[in-house]
Write a structure and sequence with these properties.
With 83 residues, the chain is mainly α. The protein has 3 helices and no strands.
């Protein structure tokens, strides 16, 4: 495995962990340990992405890094505002 592949895999793993923690916190909003880990994985992901892009160019869009409650305020697909 090349260094680029290894770096990209580590980045993907950190992104995946952050997304899973994000989903977990939807149903466990008072879990302070999970919220702390989410912050750590988001920071780790950002560092790995920055390193990859500095060496190999743009990595492309993956998961959107938004507030974990953003989906609550957006219109649902069946609501008139969404269409």
């Amino acid at each position: 495995m090349t260094e680029a592949e290894s770096l990209r895999r580590r980045y993907a793993a950190a992104e995946f962990a952050a997304w899973e923690l994000h989903l977990f916190l939807d149903s466990h909003p008072d879990d302070a340990d999970a919220a702390r880990k989410l912050k750590e994985y988001r920071e780790k992901s950002a560092r790995l992405k920055e390193t990859f892009e500095a060496q190999y160019g743009p990595i492309g869009q993956t998961f959107q890094n938004t507030s974990r409650w953003a989906w609550v305020t957006d219109p649902w697909p069946w609501e008139k505002e969404a269409n």
